[in-house]
What we know:
The complex is a heterodimer of chains A (382) and B (1078). By secondary structure, chain A is an alpha/beta fold. Chain A is built from eleven helices and 18 strands. Chain A starts with 5 loop residues before the first strand and ends with a helix. The model of chain A has no long low-confidence stretch (mean pLDDT 95). The N and C termini of chain B lie far apart (58 Å). With 1078 residues, chain B is an alpha/beta fold. In chain B, the strands form seven sheets. A seven-stranded antiparallel β-sheet of chain B has the order 14-13-10-11-12-15-16, with helices on both faces. In chain B, strand 37, helix 31 (990-1001) and strand 38 form a beta-alpha-beta unit. Chains A and B meet through strand 2, helix 3 and strand 13 of A and helix 9 and helix 16 of B.
Amino acid sequence: MSASSGAYVLLEDGTRFDGESCAAETHAVGEVVFTTGMSGYQESVTDPSFAGQLITFTYPHIGNYGISAAAMESERIWARAAIMRDARDGEDAPSAERGWLAWLKDCGIPAITGVDTRALVRHIREAGSMRGGLFPASIDEQQARELIAAEPAMDGRNLVEVVTPKQLSELYGSDAPARSGEGMLISVLDTGVKASIVRNLLERGARVRLHPCTSSAEQLLDGDPDMIMLANGPGDPAALGYVVETVRQLLGVKPVWGICLGHQMLCRALGLETFKLPFGHRGANHPVKDLATGRVEITSQNHGFAVLAPGGAKTIEHDEPVRWETDFGAAVLSHVNLYDRTVEGLTLLDVPGGSVQYHPEAGPGPHDSVHLFDRFLHASAK
Amino acid sequence: MPRRNDIKRILILGSGPIVIGQAAEFDYSGVQACRVLRQEGYEVVLVNSNPATIMTDPELADATYIEPLLPGPVAQVIERERPDALLPTLGGQTALNLAKALRDDGTLDRFGVELIGADYNAITCAEDRELFREAMQKAGLKMPTNVIATSCEQALAALDQIGLPCIVRPAFTLGGRGGGIARTASEFRAIVARGLEASPIGQILIDQSVLGWGEFELEVMRDKADNVVIVCSIENVDPMGVHTGDSVTVAPQQTLTDSLYQQLRDQAITVIRAVGVETGGSNVQFAVNPETEEILVIEMNPRVSRSSALASKATGFPIAKIAARLAVGYLLEEIDNDITGLTPASFEPTIDYVVVKWPRFAFEKFPGSVSSLSTHMKSVGEAMAIGRTFQQAFAKAMRSRELDKPPNLAKAGNEALLESLEVPAPDRYEAILELFRRGVEIEAIRQRSSIDPWFLRELRQLALHPQAPERGVRTFKSVDTCAAEFPARTPYHYSSFELPSGGRGVEHEIVRGQRPSVVILGAGPNRIGQGIEFDYCCVHAAMTVRELEMDAVMINCNPETVSTDYDTSDRLYFEPLTAEDVLGVIEAERDGAELAGVIVQFGGQTPLKLAAALSQAGVPLLGTSVEAIDLAEDRSRFGALLERLGFQAPPYASAANAQEAIASAERVGYPLLVRPSYVLGGRAMEIVYSDEGLEDYLRREVAEQDARNTIYLDRFLEDAVEVDVDALCDGQDVWIGGIMQHVEEAGVHSGDSACVLPPHSLGQEMLEQIRATTRALALEIGVVGLLNVQYAVYHGELYVIEANPRASRTVPFVSKAVGVPLAKLACKVMLGTKIAELSLPREREGLGFGEHVSVKEAVLPFDRFEGADALLGPEMRSTGEVMGIARDFPTAFAKAQAAAGLPLPSSGTAFISVTDSDKAGAFAIAQILHDVGFAIVATRGTAETISRMGIPVTQLNKIGDGSPHVVDWIERGDVAIVVNTPTGSGARSDGWEIRNAAVTRGVPCLTTLAAGISAARAIARANSNACEPEVLCLQELHGVRPPAASEPGGDEHADGHSAHAQPLAAPPAHGLEPAPRE
Lengths: 382, 1078
Ligand SMILES: Nc1ncnc2c1ncn2[C@@H]1O[C@H](COP(=O)(O)OP(=O)(O)O)[C@@H](O)[C@H]1O
Ligand SMILES: Nc1ncnc2c1ncn2[C@@H]1O[C@H](COP(=O)(O)OP(=O)(O)O)[C@@H](O)[C@H]1O
Ligand SMILES: [Mg+2]
Ligand SMILES: [Mg+2]
């Protein structure tokens, strides 16, 4: 690693944090967010949900074990920059196929090290996530401010069109039933689906079709899929009018399951509201209670928006399966976040389907909730 | 599932004396449990034999029993107190084994006591290597290939299957005791024999070696609803093959990919479920092959452990506290995370810093022992450091160790250093840093050490750029369990260096109000000579400062302790105890508010050594001034003071070098006690009888000593009675807390000898003289706070050996014996209260002549240091201590021996072999033991003396005389007790062999005449009372609780509580009338 020239992070409120540039010598602007996961940096930057965002890693050493093909959550890096306290390249780790910083650099992604990331996080925690940028010292603050101002705010931002595939694709697992076409067929509305979600579906013997987010309901229903999966993805769910409309046409026709942005889209399709969290949930340690089993699971999280509870509150008071009356009948709260008591999932009672806000597929993060995939598939089996 | 209401009274077992592998961490966990359970409204009954613990403070439990942790005494406590439940998971392996024994012998059933926290089957499954393996297999997890053997024949048969090297591990032992790595067939046979012997069930496990793989530990917690969280991952920088207790470790893990780490996490959860630990914390250890990513389970501990204390301190997640709540029915989600106050305990801490733990070793104290590290733990303490980067944390942890003598590697060549890495030794990291400084490449070091390249890269940076981690500006950050995602409520801090930016400077996180603060300097890592006693005093100081409505600020770097619990003080700074680090904290504490002062008296020699530097930097010290400290510590100034006051001291001289030393020797007169200056615990202290002896000493110890270090020569007073006094002084008044008479004669370090309070054989006149001398010394030195004076009574006259102007090792023992919290009183005095205002009865210096006798006994680690002589001397070697309390001296002595792990026998054969000057005394021992039915065997000279007095005795062969000789007798298990006093020097003499055999066999071995006589009397006494000695409740002895009623949970406890709240208000119920016993 050769940490060389100076660089800094500037937030839209003018707060500045100095450090050293350690990857591509360029600048990046977008929403500055933080993640508290201690490992899984490669999974994070390649997660399409981070599109448009600069990731601050709260764990100081990032890059320890380099990078490898197995840890890609998509085909490229979506995060705009990495902000770190003490970056490492990790190219000589036994599992490393390349060094982390060398890879960022090759991908043209700027990164900064030496930043007092804890001070930065405390600032965001108090002031909320905001726009900002990472700049080499050669860009002065005035210029930097202009670049930030030119960047649209995350509120109301449609970013799924950036990450969605251009064409439909179909994937099979190695299982015999999937290959012979006997397994379930799952249509994914791909607003930036993570490889781990797809992997979990494939591992369960399913055939998976990834549809661009612009696909119509008919296209999604083509081939008579057993279920529709609404994927994770970046940006504001409130800006996804036509996608939500597509979802409305699917509800009641096929079982519809959603994860993260998919959960938010499903809820909006039901007629529920979403709102922006002050600084989001990003990490691998959030406790989520499954109200059906009473179990608390440690979850992987990555979202900036959330769904309003019945009655319009932002939080859930008691651990009870409260209900919403929606455009598609009743929905019952299935999961609640024990950190800030926001909605983490719901199950539809009158039409088949449901969704969770967090990431049962992990990648990165704990596997406590992978069993949800079995639940989805089981509930959708014909 | 909230709190269980069907149980009211809970018995907690402590872990007993500090020994290698089981240290202060169990005081920390026990204290947390006691506090939490009482907050929850339960009554707590506590048994622990270790007086130096906070948990045995009478305020901590409703009934405290300082009794041996053995089934007999604990069954008596159960019968007396009738607890509803027993919580055995907080007192280490000792408590777990004891609980198992109480269940096996039917005691728990008989009194209807429920085991909570870990059930019987789970304990058995985790501890019995065979059952554990079966459980793992069933759960689909892999372990190293292995074979279980219960005999040498089985073991040899297994060797074909496993191959060499292999790992031998005894079942049910602590810290890997008795195990080891066998690289050759002969090593294999030796270790197998030792291991079978060490295992209480005579079972060993022979493991396929995975030396060099990565070693990882996960701290897991589970609640009744089967919710499981991982509190912390810990990576051992030292690969498999070095016991985790001896490894440098780092949290969180650094080198695993997320996917591999998640596999470990999944497996850890599978393990806790498979073993069936229903509630509480467990530690699961793994070996990971970095190349193939293969994962093997190594072991699991179904209880709070050293690693869980480390994990608690590393993350801010108080495992023991939460484990105690889980044990009484709560679920994780029903428990608050104290640190945030907002979120529940059902989460996984995430941290935004790096934690490094360094072990502290003591090989220099055990000459002759092999100082290589292996699967059997040998370190005596540890230091932890927190930094924002690995390098910051590593450098801090390294300096936190406070080594007396840094290893000198300059002379060793590269190849020698590289080779030394193949069998890890305590100085391996110094060697690695040295090699990097010399330009050796990472790969070369990796090949020899198998340390992961990530760590080597960091170490290389540190070696080449030692200042780099301190680039920027010092600031203080907080430990908050959540990487700043939520605001933290608990002020637990560490220093870091950050870059100032944007014209703002760096962010500080210290939030303090306007109350003046008192900074208490802790004792650093535990080591021989400076242990938990000092932490006890620091914790008391913090309590007192808070009582007086000032902010108690703690600085310490020992993760095992109560002092580094964030609950103990108003602000905790986890920092090394060096002048620079301490001044950094002080600067932050002075920012915008008043610093009332710094307390350096309670943390042993560590803070005392900083006194001058702090004072020079203009920092106010509370209590005894630097000038007074120097007066007491400077030999010549102190000598002059004694002379002026007309007190006797052994003749002495100080010498700047070896020649001077030889020259002064004659003037002082042999025998001589020689030592370097400013050392604690008698480091490098020896008795020499002649010029040759002195020259030999100087060659060994002084040559490499720092030139500035003076050598002291004292006339050694032979056969003197040693006396220890702890006193309080406010500059005007002196109050004597306790006078302790040692059982062993002077010459056995005060930390290693047993002592009795009140003195059992000093006359009134002598006691009066001791009091008067102590008073005069305290006032003349100018002590404000605590003073410890050591005396020798030689030929009926009093000699002053030394005066320590600080809390001593015996403060907790005295406090518990007399029922007065000495350290708290001292802290008040240091903050300006006068002794007169403390409402201590005036003539109470004689405290101790009460209705009970207290004996302190030391616990020695000889069994860990193969090859070292198991002999007591002026250099301290004990790691811990126990206390025996009884109505008479012999019984108290017997209790103390039992608590120390060497219960005195009631019948059998006594072997006696003493040096010529002790022959007369040997007869007395033989007489007593013969009278109670012992057979007496002795070596020739001793046998002659004994038989001349008409006592039947069998003469044994010396080793040179051929088999069966004395060692054969001991090894065959035919000897129940050994009295062997050394004949002077002579390494590997018969004496050495005898003592070594006794230690290995676990036979009580008394190496002084005084101890031998005490033991004989104790045996006689026990034999005359047919039953076991009565157990005594501390609160009853000190009159804060009326004698226990037979009915459980009776009303009589109600007023016990109010008395606990003000321990000082209720004067202890000691007899004021001095009436010497004997
Ligand atoms: N199969 C093995 N190969 C190499 N080293 C081992 C093996 N098993 C254990 N060890 C080492 O021995 C140490 C002690 O073993 P462990 O089972 O944890 O016993 P303890 O109960 O003393 O903690 C471990 O920390 C590890 O470093
Ligand atoms: N002059 C002496 N004669 C006999 N024993 C002595 C003498 N000086 C010290 N000792 C013994 O050595 C031990 C350690 O000496 P001390 O001065 O107390 O050192 P430390 O500072 O390590 O406590 C004492 O506890 C005592 O048993
Ligand atoms: Mg272990
Ligand atoms: Mg001493």
